Each structure stands twice: as C-alpha cells, then as structure tokens.
Amino acid sequence: MRELLGAVAVLGSGLTAGVLFCVALSVVPALRALPPDRYVQTHELLGRNYDPTMPLMVLTTALVDVLLAIMTPAGGPRSLFAVAAVMTVGVSLVSHLCNVPINRRVKVLDPAAIPADWTDPRPVWRRWHLLRTVLAVMALAVNAAAVAVA
Question: Which pTM does this prediction carry?
Fold first, then answer.
C-alpha cells in the first residue's frame, strides 16, 4: 500500500509542479504582454479549468504525503514525506491566500470597462505564483527522494 501511495504522491506533486512551471514559463509572460482588456478576458478563460482542478490535486497530494508520513517507519523517508506535505500545503496556502483573491478581483472586471484607476495585478500575482511554483518543484524533488530511499 505504501508503494502505491508513494506513486500517487510523486504523480500528484509532479502534475502540480508541472502545471505551475508551465504557467510560469509560458502563460504568465503571455498574459503580461496583453493589454488590460484582453488580459482580463484571457484570465477568465484560463481559470475555468484550473480553478476546480488544482485545489483538488494539491490537497489530495498533501493528504497522501501526510498518510505516508504516518505510515512510514521512523527515519529518513518519513521525514521527507512530512516535508513534502508541508511544502504542498504551502502551495495551497499561497494559492488561496494570495493568488485566488487576485483572481477574484480580476474576474469581476468588465474587459470593456477597465477602471481608470485600475492597478495591474500581474506583477504581484506573478511573484506569488513563482513562490508556489518553487514550493511545488521542491515538494516533487522531496517526494521523489522519499520514494527512492523508502
């Protein structure tokens, strides 16, 4: 059972890191290049599939890591699964406390009527996104190491 859960942890953290890395590498620069009205419209379109999927994937991966930390005998792999769980929870916290509130503010904007005093959220959103991407990549590395030494 631990082997199966280990595979799920690596798969979940790999998908999370991969999605966030691709967004950082390609989507964020594309969004930054758009004028505000097209950015708002594109942001809404992109969020339709990410929003329901990513929280489920991230939180499931964190739960699997917690289970592995509990089920694994004391020693290196147990600590690694616990560290991966903390990093994955960090991804979730950064998302929910930092990126999601920005997303909500962008979603209510009318692309045809961007307020004159609008503050562009893209630089701040990018910084938070890069933090959660680093956490996700580190969680993947730690999960892979834990499975390798288990």
Answer: 0.94
